[in-house]
Amino acid sequence: MREYLTTERIEAKKRLVVERTKDFGEIYEVFDKSEASTQSERCIQCGDPFCLNKCPLHNYVPQWLKAVSEKDLEFAFKLSNEPSPFPEVMGRVCPHDRLCEGDCTLNDGHGAITIGSVETFITEEGFKAGYKPDFPGITTDKKVAIIGSGPAGLSAATYLLRSGIAVTVYERSDRAGGLMTYGIPNFKLDKKIIERRVKFLVEAGMELVLNCEVGRDVTFEEIADKHDAMFIGVGATKAKKASINGEQAPNVYKAMDYLTAIQKKNFKLSYDKKFDFKEKNVVVIGGGDTAMDCLRTAKREGAKSVTCLYRRDAHNMPGSQKEYKNAMEEGVDFTFFVSPKEIILNDKGLAVGIEVIKTTLGAKDESGRQKMEEIKGSEFRVNADVVIMSLGFDPEVPSFLAENGISTNKWGGIIINEDTHETTTAGVYAGGDCYRGADLVVTAAYDGREAARSIVKSLLKK
Q: CA 143 to CA 155: how far, in whole Å?
């Protein structure tokens, strides 16, 4: 328990920049047994573990670190997979610097334990050893429908199946996974990882209906009639707008449209060739993880230059610092303290640049964050062949919500009972980004898990 005095924090090894920017393979290597063990041995087994409390899923972090340090992989695997529906995903995509690692006791002077990398190691090494998540099979006569197969939907399916309840998932896309499949690029999350988890769920009894959009291919009422309860996890995919002149130009794109097109290209599926940005000057507006994904994707696609515009500084970007660092290493240019005022168009109506104004941080607002203030007379132009808007997302509001008494708030989020995740219509539950707005994979997984527990309690009277 005092190994932190002699053993430093180590990061997972990364592929060299010159290699990794040539393809979409994952950039991080999985820890080997020695690396996972030595990092785990640094854990001081806090009486009140901040890492556990900061994790939205309340993962048993100290407990599985102890198991890894004692070379008990099977116990670590069971501990890791109990509160989390897919820990090998969380180990890769969670912003650990803002969650578990950010609150690690050793983060103050000694360097946080590399929790995310150990989490990935446990499940990947466990799969190699032949361990699998436990499912009892369908042991009840209850049936639940899930709309959307993103992190919230697959999480709900996981915990319902663990209780022996039959699950049917309706997904409008051609593959399951939601943003984990068509939003997060391969260099962060290889799609074989999602396919593997989905396969486990199908083997456990989940029925997966692809290319089926509720409200178009099948009615909400049809599904409701065949099931005892429903869970809605349709995410938040409606891109926010900057509300500036010129943003409707044909070469100004939405972030998710771009990422989806390139993922289809990587799947060797048909995609819109307008998203081939080779030898073009690409400018991305925004500072979250989705913006980083677009920037790093454009580099791999052979863009001539890739620039990020953000109205605050690097410290205030909403995304993970790890992803910002990776983008910097891969040659992305960042221009901070600028805010877009107008998309400059040529006589053909195409975007050729962005007029921006310099900004500064002023007094703090009610949340404690400094307000962004524009500096008068500081406008200048940033040239661009392509502009990608990555300003966040709002939930889409399917017509079947209001038609079935499911209320939403002023920005389109589904209103739920926060204790049960039940919507304003009895027997219908919701969670993830369609309730929270654009958030993390881990918070969506939490919502799916908690909603499933409420459904189990209601249906099985447990």
A: 16
